[in-house]
Amino acid sequence: MTQPLPTPDRQRATTVLDVARLAGVSAMTVSRALNQPQRVPPATRQRVQAAVEATHYVPNLLACGLRSRRSRLVAAIVPALGSPVFSETVQALTATLGAAGYHLMLGQSGYGAAGEDALLQAVIGRRPDGIVLVGVDHSRQTRERLAGCGMPVVETWDLTPTPIDMLVGFSHADVGAAVCRFLADQGRRRLAVVSGADGRAARRAQAFTATAEHLGLPAPVLVEVDAPTTLGHGRQALRQLLGHPAGVDGIFCSSDMLALGVLTEAAHQRIAVPGRIGVVGFGDQPLAADAEPALTTVRVDGARIGREAALRVIGRIAGAPAPELAALDVGFSIVPRRSG
Amino acid sequence: MTQPLPTPDRQRATTVLDVARLAGVSAMTVSRALNQPQRVPPATRQRVQAAVEATHYVPNLLACGLRSRRSRLVAAIVPALGSPVFSETVQALTATLGAAGYHLMLGQSGYGAAGEDALLQAVIGRRPDGIVLVGVDHSRQTRERLAGCGMPVVETWDLTPTPIDMLVGFSHADVGAAVCRFLADQGRRRLAVVSGADGRAARRAQAFTATAEHLGLPAPVLVEVDAPTTLGHGRQALRQLLGHPAGVDGIFCSSDMLALGVLTEAAHQRIAVPGRIGVVGFGDQPLAADAEPALTTVRVDGARIGREAALRVIGRIAGAPAPELAALDVGFSIVPRRSG
DNA sequence: CTGAAAGCGCTAACAA
DNA sequence: TTGTTAGCGCTTTCAG
């Protein structure tokens, strides 16, 4: 795995010194012209700029980071890079951090604490200036490592009374409760949850169930499916639910794709939605609005989560005091469409 | 944007020297114990290991990379991180590189040459040991920069007679031609293409059209939609096609999601698929097999592309000669299901 | 098998 | 406004 490889003999890349010589200034002046242009008179700045272009100079950010103790890198650890749920957040992180001169370094933890630990070790080795995590359930090791290294940390997409540092998210329990009430308000009584194997989805399901009990409804049927949630899982789940003796008239799915599967199977079996069964998804992906029937779902402002997380990291790096960057609850909303 | 921030005063992270002192050896021995364990006797190795754990030492990879001229980082530039089409490739890259001790650094170019240029500059600053690109259409600036820096480069998901360096992909023209013949073989004659705004999709569409002409069929109708392709776009496209005077009996969509939209609209309008219209997608996403009717689509082994690309980068870094790492055509297959 | 010296490329800190 | 010096943390190189 870590063989003693030959030292690479690629041609040495141009350095500040090359640029400095060509521009007839010192290395330090080149550095300043690039990083703090306002501290260098326009004439010198232009000479440096010309030399940079002539030599195709690209600063070595490893060296910059090592010397200045700022890597200009922020790491984000996401359960699944492919998941459309987080892509708005990743976009917003990239954009907001980019505008402030930071690069986003993406890692995928794969929904498990074990993967997260290993990934975190690798990530910390690159000395990012801050870390954004999706979720609040981390191993003790992860929490200690992060709390110990004094780096700005934002946990996202969830809430907790005991964040590692900063927090931007919403209450999954509230989502589960709200959706249950939403379905109950329409007179649905025999409820079910189709849920992917993911801690946050599980908490939504749990609160959904607790609320049903609280409302005096029969205990909802729970169908668990593997991650990632697919259209096929949704179809299968509905088939399973239809075999249930008590029957079902309202289903909360832990993703829009699962819900689309439920809609697909319902159409295939000529089961009326929303007539006989109400279906609610989660995520408000683009497909939700255009499904047939249009999918009622839970909308979360993923872009805002990304933006706020980025601003918090940047603020903390710039030295903002902790209290200004308290936890933020971005909330959620139920988008009522045709399906439920 | 680049303000003179205060030097971060986080507590100094532990360094090799701290570990060395604790283990009673020199810094060099610590380094060797970690990077070339076989060159250090077990006894010393264990003492070092113990000291590493006691101090929570995490090597500074910026310093490692700077000194050794190996960042152990490979960059991948993808048009859209959220796109499910590339997620298998990204997974395989991560896994294959990870097994060889490399980290993947992901960047999103956003389907445009302009974005790619800027991103590339940022990426090169981090001094990756290799670069994986999706696509073969790059600006002259990008090509020169990459060719000039002597870094291993793999272009993927396409073929070209003039690669920058290495190449792992398949022919989009062949895909377009094959799908056209596939539909024609079933007696479909009034064909159409629904295509996202993306160069590779455009080439598939072009070859599809050329093949139709070659087969003596009427010129296919082309519907272009914005990226990213959504279910809604697919529905809209079918509505548009149904208004076409000549009628349509076979549709090639540039993504499975678009195709699902076509299926959805067809079901809504009670248009028989495959009876009246045949539908073919692209990508063989999980949803394809479970759509109703099951979606005929083009399967590409994205995981293999990622694996082979990673192996080529690793091989080149390890000093393998260029000829061994020639271009690879991974091909594709049409997966016939119910829809067309 | 182990260590000492040197320096990767850059910028903080200070001096002029 | 500009330059000089030193050193970030590590590993290459060479000597023991």
UniProtKB/TrEMBL annotation, chains A, B:
Gene3D superfamilies reported for this sequence: 3.40.50.2300, lambda repressor-like DNA-binding domains
The entry's keywords: DNA-binding, Transcription, Transcription regulation
Molecular-function GO term, any one: transcription cis-regulatory region binding
InterPro entries: HTH_LacI, LacI/GalR-like_sensor, Lambda_DNA-bd_dom_sf, Peripla_BP_I
Residues annotated as domain HTH lacI-type: 14-68
Coiled-coil portions: none
Name recorded for this polypeptide: LacI family transcriptional regulator
Organism: Pseudorhodoferax soli
